[in-house]
Amino acid sequence: MSSLDGPEHTPVPPPILNPAGGANQVRVRAYNERLVLSLVRLYGALSKADIARRSGLSAQTVSVIMRVLEKEGLLSRGAPVRGRVGQPSIPMHLNPDAVYSFGLKIGRRSADLVLMDFVGRIRMQLHQTYAYPLPDEILAFVTSGIEEIESRLDDKQRSRIAGLGIAAPFELWNWAEEVGAPPGAMEVWRDVDLQADIAARVSHPVFLQNDATSACGAELVFGVGPSYPDFVYFFIGSFIGGGIVLNSAIFSGRTGTAGAIGPLPVRDRNGETKQLLEIASIFVLENMLRERGIDPEPLWYSADDWVDFGEPMEVWIQDSAKALAQAIVAAASIVDFSAAVIDGGFPDWVRSRMVQATIDEAAKLDLQGVVMPEIIEGAVGAQARAIGGASLPIFSRYLTDQNVLFKEIDHAEGT
Amino acid sequence: MSSLDGPEHTPVPPPILNPAGGANQVRVRAYNERLVLSLVRLYGALSKADIARRSGLSAQTVSVIMRVLEKEGLLSRGAPVRGRVGQPSIPMHLNPDAVYSFGLKIGRRSADLVLMDFVGRIRMQLHQTYAYPLPDEILAFVTSGIEEIESRLDDKQRSRIAGLGIAAPFELWNWAEEVGAPPGAMEVWRDVDLQADIAARVSHPVFLQNDATSACGAELVFGVGPSYPDFVYFFIGSFIGGGIVLNSAIFSGRTGTAGAIGPLPVRDRNGETKQLLEIASIFVLENMLRERGIDPEPLWYSADDWVDFGEPMEVWIQDSAKALAQAIVAAASIVDFSAAVIDGGFPDWVRSRMVQATIDEAAKLDLQGVVMPEIIEGAVGAQARAIGGASLPIFSRYLTDQNVLFKEIDHAEGT
DNA sequence: AATAAATAAATCCAATTGAATTATTAATTC
DNA sequence: GAATTAATAATTCAATTGGATTTATTTATT
C-alpha cells in the first residue's frame, strides 16, 4: 500500500503506563464470586436463577458459586417463593453477621468509631468530641474503642471482622486557624502516618480514605447510589468536602482527593471571588454564632443536638446555597452528572432547607447549554463518613461495584 | 448476635442498575488478545517475553495468543534484537496495513474525511469548506469521499476497513447565530439522525462521538495520553469544547458530553460572568476580525493558512487564556487532573502562545488548596477530531485502553 | 402437561506448569 | 586467538488444572 501516504502526526512520547494484567480462571472465579455477592447486596435478595439471568452466567456456574458462598456463611437462604409455575425459587440474601467491619471517622470536632455489619447496619458505636484532634488522643480512642467493642463480641464474631476503615480529612494542618486550634498545635499531623500508626496497634487490616470521599462512598452503596450512576457529592462538615461517583463507582483520582471541591472559586454575596469552603462550611456558622454571642457547642456533639439558631443560621444557609449552586453548575459543565447530592453533619431538617435553597439559587443562574443534575438530599446522613470508612474493608474483600476485573481496588491497605 | 443493635439508616431505594456480566474463558481470551494488541500499540514493539512480563500472563499463553495474531496479520515480526545474553528477542509490532478506518470530522466551517491505518497514520484525506453545514451536503461529501478513497484501494485493502467514525458537534442548531448561519437554516439538524443516515449509505459499521471528545481521544491514544493518566482537554474550534480522560480512558458521561466545558461560567475582562465558549472560541476571533474589516476566511480552510492577525488576535489570545485559566482551576477543584491539555483548530504557533498565556494567567489566581494540573500543549493538532473519529472503529474491535473486561465499550455502534 | 428451579455428570477450553529446545553472551581453557 | 563450557533468555511442546458450559435429570409447582 505504498501509494497511501500522508502526514504523520507527532510521535508518541515514552509511555509510563503499566496497564492491567491478563485474565485467567482463578481471577475469573474471584471476580464472579464478588459479582454474585454484589448483585445480592444490590437487590437485597436474589435466587440462583435470578443471578444467572442478571450475570449472564450459566445456571450451573451460579449454582456452584452460590453453594460455596452459602457454605462459607456469606449467603443465607430465605423462604421459598411459591405462587409461580415451576419449582419455587429460593431467594438468597447476604448474611448480616457474616462480616463485620470497623469504621473510624476523624473530624475537626469529634471522632466516631462504629461497628458495621455485612449489610451496612451500624451495630455499635462510640463517640468522642474535642476542641481539635491530636494523633495520640485519636490513637487512644481507637485502640480502647476497638477493645471495648470486641469485648462484647464472642470469638466467632471477632474472627469475622474484615478490618478497620478510617475516614479522615487530608492535610489536617491546613486551616487550623479557622477551626480555632492554637497556633502550631495541628503541625504534629504533618509527620504522622495515621494508617501505619493505627495498623501497628490493631490486629486487622487498616484502610484509609478521605473523609468526604468516604461519605460519598456510603451514599453510593447505601444511599442514592443505586438510582444515580454518576453524581457529585457534597458533605458539609466543619469544612465542606465532596466526592465524585462515575459509572457507579467512586472516582478518587490521582491524589485521592477528587471531588475535594473546597477550593472551587465561587462568588459570595458581595460578588467577590472566594473559595467554596470559606462559605459553605460549618465552621463559618460556628464563627457567626460566636460573633453574636451564641454558644456553638450544640454543633459539635451530635447532629440531633442542633437547634434552630434563627437569623444567623438562615443567613448561613442562604450564603451556602448560593455557593453550592455555583459549584453545581461548574461541576455540571465539566461532567454531566445525573445528580448533585448534598449531605452533612447536621440534622435532616437543616439538610432539607439547604437543598431547597440550593435548588432555588440554581434556578437564578445562567444555565444555557448546561446539563443540570437533579439536586437532591443525601439519604445516609451525618454518619456517612464513618459508614463509608467501615465499608472499605468489606468492599475490598467481598464486593465490587465496579465492572472492573483486573484493576486493584484503590483504597490503600496497610500492613 | 442479638445484643448488637444500633440505628439503621435510610433503606435502599429500588435499584435501577444492571451491572456487568460474568466472566468465562471466551471473554478472557478476547480480553487477553486485546490486551496484547494494546500493549504492543502502546510501546510500539514488544517481544512475546516482554508481553508476558507486562501482562502477568505466562509465556506460553502469550506465545499462543501472539502466534494467532501474527497469523491473522495483525502483528508482524521485526528484526531479532541481539546483544544481550540469551536467545535474541523478536519484537512484534502492529502491522500498519492490518486495519484501516475512516474518520469524518464535521465542523461549523469545514468537514474532513481521513483514512487512517492501524498505527494511527493518516493515509489519505479529503477536505471541504462551507459557510455552514447542511445534512445533505455532508452526506454527499462522505459517500462520494469514501467511494473515491476506496477506489484507490485494492480488494484486500478494502476488506480491512474496520468502519467509519464520525466526530461531530452535538446540537448543531444551537449557536447558529454566532456562526453566521441564516436564521432557521440549522434547524434541519434537529430531525437528522446522522449516524443512521450515513450508516444506511455506507457498507461499514458507523460510530458517532462528540467532536471535542473525539479530539480528546486522539490525544489520549496518539498524543500525551501515555504520559498522563488523567487530564482535562480543551479543543478550541469554531466553538470551544473539551473532553475528560480518567484512568487513561475517555470518560464520556451519561449524555456523551462530559467535558463539554463550553457553558462553564467564567469572568471576562470586565469582571462579568460569561460562558467559556463566549470568549475562547474561534468564532469570537472571527467576529473581532470582521469588525475591524479584516477578512477572516484564512481561519476556515487549513490551520496552516493562518497568518498573524496582530492586535485583535493578541486580545483574543489574552481573553481566552484568562478564561481558560479559570476553567482549569474549576476543573482542578473537582477532579485532581494531572494535566490540562490545550489544542485547537489553529497552527502550532498559536497554540504555543495560547498555552503560555494560560500558564501566566493561572499563576495570578487564588490556588490555595488546589492541586493544579500541568498546563501543556496538545501533541496531535488540528486534525485531532478526525483522527479521534477514525480511531473509534479500531478501538471498538481490536484494542482497549481501559482495564475493563466486561463493560461494553461505550461508543454507540450503528447497524 | 407445562413450566421453572436446581443440580449432577460430562465436556470444553484457556491458562498454567514443567520440561525441552534454541540462540545468544560471558567466562574459561588451551 | 580459538575452542569449550556455563549461564541466560526466548520460545515452544506436552500434560495438567480448573472453572464455565452443555446436557440430562430431578423436584416442585401451577
TrEMBL record, chains A, B:
Gene3D superfamilies: 3.30.420.40, Winged helix-like DNA-binding domain superfamily/Winged helix DNA-binding domain. Keywords: Kinase, Transferase. This is Sugar kinase. One of its GO terms (molecular function) is kinase activity. It comes from the Bacteria. Pfam families: HTH_24, ROK. Belongs to the ROK (NagC/XylR) family. InterPro entries: ATPase_NBD, ROK, WH-like_DNA-bd_sf, WH_DNA-bd_sf.
